[in-house]
Amino acid sequence: MAKRDLSAARAPGGVAAIIACCALALFEGFDLQAAGVAAPRLAPDLRLGPDVLGWFFSVSTFGLMIGAAIGGRLSDRYGRKRVLAVSVIVFGMLSILTGLAQNSEQLLVARFLTGVGLGGALPNLIAIVAESAGEARRSRAVGFLYGSMPCGGALASLVSVAGAAPSDWRLIFYVGGLTPLLILLVAAPHLPGATRAPIADTDVTPRRSGFIEAAFGEGRAVTTLLLWTVFLLALLIMYLLLSWLPSLLIGRGLSRPDAGLVQMAFNLAGAAGSVAAGWMMDRRNLRSATIVGVFAAAAASVAVLANAPASLAMSLLVGALLGATVSAVQSVVYGMAPGFYPTRLRGTGVGAAVVMGRLGSAIGPLLAGALLATGRSPAQVLLTLLPILGLGGVLCVWLANRPTAPTEEVAGA
User: Fold this and answer.
1) Would you say residue 198 has pLDDT above 70?
2) Which of 10, 232, 243, 283 has the lowest tally of Cβ within 10 angstroms?
C-alpha cells in the first residue's frame, strides 16, 4: 500500500470546512449545557421531582455514548459528511421536540435521542477538521473546534435569561435545535464530500475494517488504551466542574448570581484556552512542555480556588484561569486523537475515544455528589481533582511521545 501526504490537496476549501464545523460545534456545546440552564424553570413547569430531574441530566449522556460509537464507525464506511448531516438533523429535530415535551416521558425520550445525535456528530466534526487542516495545523484547528463548545454553553446561558415566564425554558431548546439545522443548510456545500482515503487504482477495493483493527491493530493497543484513559480523566474533570462548580462556590459563600458569573467566565476563558493550547501543540518541539504546562496550571488553579477567599473578584479571576486551563487539557487530548489513526479508521478510533470520554463525563458529577454526601467540604471536593490531574498529565506526556499514523493512506501497489 503506497502512502503519500495529501495535506496540500486538502487546502482548497479547508478553511471553509473548519469554520462550518466550528459553527456546528458551537451548538453542540449549546445543547450539551441546555439542560442545566433550563432546569430551574423546566422542573416546576413540568412538575418534575428530583429523581426525574436527575434522569433528565443524565439520559443524554447514554445517548451520546451510543451515538459516538455508531457515528464514528458509520463515517468510516459511508463518509463523514453524510453521517455528520444525519447526526445534526437528529439532534436539531430532537432538541426542538424537547422544547415541545408536555410530560416527563416525552422529555426523557427526546433528550436521549438528542444525545444520540450529539454523540454521532462529535467524532465526525473532529475528523473533518483534522483532515481539512492537515497534519501541520491539526491541533490548532481542533483547538478552535473545541473552543466553540464552551462558547455555545455561554450562549445557552444568555438565551436562558431572555424570558421570565416559567414556560420560557422551551425557547432554549428551540434555539438549540433550529439554529444548527440552518447552519447545516448553509455549511453543507463547504464540507468535504469524500473523507475516506482515495484509491489510486480503480480495480482495488477499499478495505473494510472493524473496531478491533481500528483500536488495536498495527501496534496501536497501548496508544488506544492510553488515549481512552486520558479522555476519561479529562472529561471527568471537566464535567465535574461544569455540573458542580456553581454549587461548590455557593457552598463556599458566594451568592447564586455571583456563582453564575464565575461559571460564565469559566466557559468563555475555556474557549481561549482551547485555541492557545491547540496552537502550541502544533509545535512538535513544545508538545511535552505544553502538556506539562496546562496540567500544572490547571492543578494550581484548582488549589487556589479551593483555598482562596470567597470573594467575587478572586473567584472570577481564578474561575477564568481554571476554565482556560481545564479546557486546554481537553483541547490537547482531542487534538492528539485523530493523528493516531489512519484515515480509513479515524472515525471508528476517535469515536471510541469519545465514548470513553462520555463515560468520564458521567462519572465526574457522580464522584462530586458522593464526596459531598460523605461530608466533604467544597474545598475538599476540588482538591480531589489534583491527583486526577497529575495522573492525566503523566499519561498524556507518554501518549504524546507515541508514534502517530501516516498522514494519509492511498491504496495502490
Assistant:
1) no
2) 283
